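User: quick one, fold this
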Amino acid sequence: MSRRFKRHELSDTVAKKEGRKLKSRREKGRAVWFGLGMFGIIGWSVAVPTLLGIALGVWIDRTWEGPFSWTLMLLVGGLMLGCLNAWYWLERESKRD
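Assistant:
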């Protein structure tokens, strides 16, 4: 019984790998552009909220004086929001395949 189960697992594993390899061969040109596009999406999804946080923080710091730096706090907040946004895009794309 154990031996049969292992053969079945091996057969499933080989079939999955074969399917991935065939899919990769069919979509050869897409992979390069898809990878570059993902770099762009991830980069912008982190950079834009970070820069917006910095800009808002600088404006608040110049408008109202306070004991702490809004620029630094909103930079960190924007960076965290951007990382969550990038994670969302990666999860979405990994589920698509």
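User: anything notable?
Assistant: Helices lie at 2-26, 28-63, 70-96.
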